[in-house]
Amino acid sequence: MAEERVERAAGGFVVRRRGSGREVLLIDDAYGRVSFPKGHLEPGETWEDAAVREVREETGILSRILAPLGRVEYLIERDGAPVRKQVRLFLMEEIDEQDEPSYQAEEVRGAYFLPWDEADRRHRAQGYENWSWVFAKADALWRWHESRWETRLRGVSNSADAIDAVWNEVSPLLDDLVAAVARELSVVAPALHRQAESPALPREVEAASLPQAIEHTLLKPEASQVDVENLCRDAARHGFHAVCVNPQHVGLARRMLDGTGVAVCTVIGFPLGAADPVALVAEAEAVVQAGAVEIDMVIPVGSMREDDIWTVHDHVRRVCEAAHRHPGVTVKTILETHFLTASQVCMASMVAAAAGADLVKTSTGFAPTGARIADVAMMALSAGGRGVKAAGGVRTRADALAMMRFGATRIGTSSGVAMLRQ
After folding, report:
1. Using N-to-C axis directions, what is the helix angle for 397-405 and 160-188, rounded to 10°?
2. What three-state secondary structure class fits 332?
3. Running along the chain, 422 residues long, what does each successive block of 10 average in pLDDT?
4. Distance of CA 223 to CAs 80, 175, 247, 255, 417, Å?
């Protein structure tokens, strides 16, 4: 069967400040509709390169990218053959001093800035349905950028005091961002959209619940059989929920922990998340046969970075379907949040839940940063009641309890014994 043809395009939702207000750049396209400047990727370009170039070529406006906004996909026909159109839009900011756009007549019929609310009304009246979610999400991301929450929240230290200091201020915006991402998903991929209530955060956590939340972890490539045996003894002695080991050691962990009540967890597609989905399914089957009852799989991180939620969903769905054929097997989906924007963390959580994941997990421990309280909270608010595993750099009792207070139901750590001693 012939491979499906793909065409890619990128563009911008461009905002400029005027006095105390915001204005949005719109175009009148060749079909009499209101839209945003965008066009095809040229060979050798990135999505971002194409977005900046297309805005400049179609409207004369120089702009810079603030954040990825989202992606739509749909089928068109070209030369009698079906073609999959992939279009990404970026939130952008005007950076020149030009008062009015100078559009290219051969590409668009008009280009102009309008005050935000007026632009929203015109787009709702004359825009395309598959972009109907854009203004709400752009508004949330613009406010996120304006208030510097990427550093003020996601860069906050992993302590309850640090996040408590900003939580009341940021919480309404987080609610808006989660709602905007959910709205986007309901439009661009309605089959993946699940309506679910978000938990109330922060929540009360009993320190006595910590041992049963801990997954005692040893995923270092140099881990020896003796190291794994000692890990299992520690887990059984302290009543941890599980051990998490590499697939090679699943059989050993199962034999060591038989009858102790400690579960055996392992990882697949680890740590890059770039495995073929057929190989992921085979790996999932193999580790279940070896004795694993919990599987932590890494999403295709590169796909999520370019807002390809369809590929992410496909990988997670295949693993969940294979794993869930075995009663009692749990799948946790590792997002590797270090490489994702805040809105992508929310979207990845929703997509993983829709694909059947039982929990979503922050990190592999191999990225430059691991679990962050802000990411745990965003995942808890987005995952529709699924559990959240905070993993990667959680080393102290106080950090673990803070993670649990803001939504974590599991803690993946190699420092579990030290936590209890603290």
Report:
1. 40
2. strand
3. 84 93 96 96 98 96 97 92 96 86 85 97 98 98 97 91 94 97 97 86 95 98 98 98 98 98 98 97 98 98 98 98 98 98 98 98 97 98 96 96 97 96 89
4. 56, 42, 12, 18, 18
Q: Which of 38, 137, 332, 389 is catalytic?
A: 389
Structure tokens at 311: 């590929």
User: For residue 144, what are its two tokens?
Assistant: 């996120």
Q: Is 361 a catalytic residue?
A: yes
Residue whose token pair is 């302590």: 159
Is 147 within 8 Å of 386 (Cβ atoms)? no
- Whether 296 is catalytic: yes
By three-state DSSP, how is residue 331 classified? strand
Domains of the chain from N-terminus onward: 5-137 (3.90.79.10), 207-421 (3.20.20.70)
Among this protein's residues, is 38 annotated catalytic? no
User: Considering 296, 358, 375, 399, which one is annotated as catalytic?
Assistant: 296
Over its C-alpha atoms, the chain yields an Rg (Å, rounded) of: 23
CA distances, 364 to each of 190, 262, 393 (Å): 30, 21, 10
Q: List the structure tokens of 98.
A: 């030009």
Half-sphere exposure of 334 (CA within 13 A, CB side): 30
Identified catalytic residue from 38, 137, 332, 361: 361
